[in-house]
């Protein structure tokens, strides 16, 4: 869990992902289209990815990816991010975290 916390605080937006996950791709594309440059950790491509995935499950992210952190805080997975976007809360949250300048 310590490693997840450490990695989640690297940038204003951090995404734990898997390279073959279509919902991960959707969330990365959505944030990129807003102009956000998140730190992305592809769990199927890094050492210790399975341990990080288990920690994300313990954190309550089910499925384990995508797991999105904004401002170092766990936001949730694809459903939570899309809900924030649809109720117009995502962009203000990204601005407060310093991920968007405009």
TrEMBL record:
Main location: cytoplasm
Name of protein: Monothiol glutaredoxin-S2-like
GO cellular component, one term: cytoplasm
Glutaredoxin domain segment(s): 13-75
Highest taxon above the source species: Eukaryota
Keywords: Cytoplasm, Redox-active center
Similarity remark: Belongs to the glutaredoxin family. CC-type subfamily.
Record has Cytoplasm as a keyword: yes
Ranges in a coiled coil: none
Pfam families, per the entry: Glutaredoxin
Subcellular location: Cytoplasm
Organism: Cicer arietinum
InterPro entries xref list: GlrX-like_pln_2, Glutaredoxin, Glutaredoxin_subgr, Thioredoxin-like_sf
